[in-house]
Amino acid sequence: MSKFDLTTPRGRLRTTADHLWNDHAYLRLAFSNAHWISDELVRTNQPWPFQLKAWKDRGIKTIINLRGGFETSFRAMEVDACERLDLELVDFVIASRDVPTAEKVLGARDLFETVRYPALMHCKSGADRAGIMAVFYKHFRQGQSIREAIGQLSPRYLHVKAGLTGVLDYIFERYLAEGEPAGQSFVEWVQSPAYDPVAIKADFKAAWWGTTLNEKLLRRE
User: Fold this and answer.
1) Domains of the chain, with CATH numbers?
2) Strand 62-65 relative to strand 41-44, pairing
3) Residue 122 and residue 34: Cα distance in Å, rounded?
4) Which helix (H) or strand (E) holds 35?
5) How do strand 62-65 and strand 119-122 relate by DSSP bridges?
6) 163 near 211, Cβ under 8 Å?
7) Rounded to whole angstroms, how far apart are CA atoms 42 and 142?
8) Whether the predicted model's global pTM rises above the 0.85 cut
9) pLDDT for the residue numbered 134
């Protein structure tokens, strides 16, 4: 059984306190980093239950959790809220500092073709994991080129390219430098021997100041 039990007043208080402090949710009480990237999909940071209610009232049907965190306070609160609000909760875990496998990339493509819209997708800050998934959505669902779609990884959404999370940008930069000139689609490149997640991550170099900002000051997940 999860240590975050919402069936008692004491358990709910403990869960809320953990969410507020340990998940830095106090920063998200009045700031959602919300951006509609189409008329059917919005990207945000981790929503509070009261924010999920507001999104439900605006027509959202599905919540896509990109964080995982299955034994955490945020997860307990999100599951409880989605059940009460009759929102479908879909888990699609992706990392903010790793190169996704080809299977994960294709899984993202399939997700956007099968999920029930309108939908909301979130990570913790709405900047990095939401960013790479927004690139996949724009490319696979809306047909944008990678060169256009990569704009979803932007300071506008609080994404820090100079830090370790810049590896997400580097994936697409490598495709534009190698795959596109060879006439490969993004999927063809991802499924080719040239797409080696371990090697691509090893080739990426983050700037020291970006790492300090993201890892030490912002303490991004």
Assistant:
1) 9-217 (3.90.190.10)
2) unpaired
3) 9
4) strand 35-36
5) parallel
6) yes
7) 14
8) yes
9) 98
